[in-house]
Design goal:
Number of domains: 3
Strand content: under 5%
Radius of gyration: 24 Å
Strand order of the largest sheet: 1-2
Helix content: 55-70%
Number of helices: 19
Shape: globular
Distance between the termini: 80 Å
Mean pLDDT: 81
Largest sheet: 2 strands, antiparallel
Length: 428
Amino acid sequence: MNSFKANSNAADIGLGPSYSGKLQHGEFLFNEFTRLFDQYDQLAQIHQQYGNEQKLRILCYQLSDYPSLVETFRALCSNDEALLDKSLFCSWFSFLLADQLKLSVVDTKDLFIAGLAQELAKAGQAQLGDSPAGEVGGENNETNTLGQVTTADEVRRFLDSIPRLSEQLKVIVGSHHERLDGTGFPSGKVEHLFSLVEKVHVVANEVIELSGRYSATLYDFMPVLPILRLNASVYDRKIYCAAFKLLSAGQELHGGQESHDYEASEQRGTGQTARSNSDSYVHRNLSIQSLIDRQNSLLLVWPHLLTAAAEVSVLEDNLPVMALKQIARRAWILATTAGILSDDLLLWLTQVDNPAEVRSELAELDVLLDELDGIISTYQHKLETFTGLARNQLDEAKHAMLVRLCGDLKPPQETFDLEEFTILNMCD
């Protein structure tokens, strides 16, 4: 009998882990968090300012009431340290957000455990031994660290096999791949369909995803702050304001002067934040001309996005339509509030004499242009998928227009003019 089944059976007959075993499990988890803080100064800075060592230790020892989870966690530690660190971060950051939002003790505990269990469920499948690798199909499958295919149903089955886990916790774990704009999976729900605790869990996962996308170093959150400011204008403001406040604290180590107060920071607007070491950004090779070219490229497809959004806005609501509306709304707020497609910004760029003096502002603009480009690409993909699935639900004219707009939303492709090339060569 493997350790997973042994622990489950022990819990079922009321024996549970011994007191010494609980101490070992709790100490192990707490030591893993300590290692994370020792390894990443940014996280240690945030924890020192906003964390609570005593509460964190208590939560670690409470998790030892679920020995199956801890045993699976140990298995995860030995197989994939990056996955382990991600689950530790999501658990800890959800705990901090819950404290900032003054959530109940029960909600805080569920969020804390869910942050760990979202990855444990994958490794746990290896111990369940129910489904051979590759047996289950479907687009919502995930391949776990041990090479097995894990579906949302299998993850749920793993969680159901653990005694005393709350129903809310299981729902939270199932939402870690969801996003508030409906672009996540497996359900593709949009913001108003999530509970508050689910949204906290989604935001914690979104933060680590954004950091990986835009930061040159792990857990450097400076490039993420402008996007959190944007999202606070679109989605649940109090959650994103809390996330902004927490992550700003970690930037002091880079000499940053980012305000920990979201409202004060927001008043300064785009280009007036992120004054820390600009080398923290992934996009370090910036030039004024490249930014202007990217702005011009986005301006070419922007009118088509507005047209598509207007056409979709009159359609009957379902999950795909609601997701399209949310994505378009976020794009609109980014373009208008941040002003990254404005003539004023173009004028400012053309008047910059010394790019080195405004390197941080250029880096932030680079991130926001990337984000808008990604939003438009996501919208185009979602719209293309929707038009394919809803062909029979749309009248012929509406369907044809949406199909045409899908093509218009694709980035313009450079074409090779052989005649022009030949004439230029003859001139030379």
